[in-house]
Amino acid sequence: MNANRASIFNDARRVVVKVGSNVLTADLGLNLKAIRSISRQICRLIEDGREVILVSSGAMASGVKKIGLDKRPNEIPKRQAVAAVGQAGLIMEYDKAFGRYKKKVAQILLTGDDLNDRQRYLNARNTLNALLSWQVVPIVNENDTVMIEEIQFGDNDNLAAMITLLMDADILINLTDIDGLYTRDPRTFPEAELIPVISTISKDIKKLAGNIPGSLGTGGMLSKIKAAGKVTAAGIPMLIAAGSKPDILTKLFAGQEHGTYFVPRKEKLKSRKCWIAFTLKPKGVISIDEGAAAAILQRGKSLLPSGIVGVEGEFSVGAPVEFRRGDGETLGTGLVNYSSVDIRKIMGLKSSQIEQCLGQKPYDYVIHRDNLAITAECSI
Questions:
Q1: Contact between residue 379 and residue 229 where contact means Cβ atoms under 8 Å apart
Q2: CA-CA distance, 294 to 93, in Å (whole number)?
Q3: What single string gives the DSSP state of each residue in 337-352?
Q4: Is 358 helix (H, G, I), strand (E, B) or coil?
Q5: pLDDT digit string, tens, across residues 332-369
Q6: β-strand partners of 16
Q7: What's the burial of 219, exposed, middle or buried (CB within 10 Å: 0-12/13-18/19+)?
Q8: What is the maximum span of the chain, computed from C-alpha positions, in angstroms?
């Protein structure tokens, strides 16, 4: 293992571990052996002085088995009901597994709304910090019972990335049914080669990932790559590894090289900018010219109305909005000082002309640099 990667594992004090459905499922039910193994390894990490947050799939598999169904239902209300039944069984098994090592667990069920709202976002962080201070293992999952498209995370890969950013963790470990990202799907092509390190998440990397689907979970390899893009852009490394490998977590923290390691950006984004960039759902798009792009990217400036060339969507003051180059490349997200209606009126104007146009000028900037998060390097 290279020195930098080894030191990251050695120095990591706060760890997020995400375990996918394919690792936790056996014959449409829970793989109890896997749950016990992962629980034992996490307890060992805690004994070594680390804090661990577990993001766990498996509620659906647990519910299907418990109810006695022969397959997952297709109707959304039934799927949500199955998840509700299964979540209880999933937590019960974790409680028993961690209890063997005298560790307590806590169930945390979240929706996208919980992290979109700044106060609820901070409340969630405070609760998780309290649990960690008591050496209680938080087990996080999406609240499938009340989930609708508008408030869902999409999959637990994205949820794990959100939790990693929320808690300013030192590393995200994504355990799945495959060793990492391969040049082709190794389940179909035996000659496929593992990619041990990824420094830049390019279009080619995304294309490789898109050709490697998941068989049970909602997210295949591409969703894991997108999660890696978010955390590495914030300066946090991520690793994809096979959750079925014996003592995989123990081996990783002992310095052994496994899986695919994603190299983080050198500078970490501040917590609030992570929230703006990766947790909030953009309500619209602002297109900017090359002068504005250079000012933001190279000189750390705010976005002025003079650099805006287009506005998409309808949004109000304070809304999160993407800003893009003319070629469509997303540069980042920011909280706007003006509504979409007013931005259309003042775009292209100098700040000194805002009052004449609108009758008032509460701000010189459309997006202030303190409310602007750049994500262009990860190209998510």
A1: yes
A2: 53
A3: SS-HHHHHHHTTS-GG
A4: helix
A5: 999 999 999 999 999 999 999 999 999 999 999 999 99
A6: 53, 172
A7: buried
A8: 71
Best mean pLDDT range from 39-43, 74-78, 161-165? 39-43
For the sheet with 51-56, list strands across it: 105-110, 137-142, 51-56, 14-19, 171-176, 238-242, 260-262, 197-198
Cα–Cα distance for residue pair 157/119, rounded to 1 Å: 23
The answer regarding whether domain 3-270 maps to CATH 3.40.1160.10 reads: yes
Q: Are 227 and 160 in contact (CB under 8 A)?
A: yes
Q: Give the Cα separation of 276 and 258 in Å (integer).
A: 32
Would you say the pTM of this structure is higher than 0.85?
no
Beta strands in the chain (DSSP E): 14-19, 25-26, 29-30, 51-56, 105-110, 137-142, 171-176, 197-198, 238-242, 260-262, 285-288, 308-312, 320-324, 330-335, 372-374
The CATH fold assigned to 282-374 is: 2.30.130
Which pair of structure tokens corresponds to residue 299?
């000189």
Distance CA 347, CA 156 (A): 39
| For residues 287-315, average pLDDT | 94
Q: Which residue intervals of the chain bear CATH 3.40.1160.10?
A: 3-270
Burial category of 320 from C-beta neighbours within 10 Å (exposed 0-12, middle 13-18, buried 19 and up)? buried
pLDDT in tens, 78-110: 888 888 888 888 999 999 999 999 999 999 998
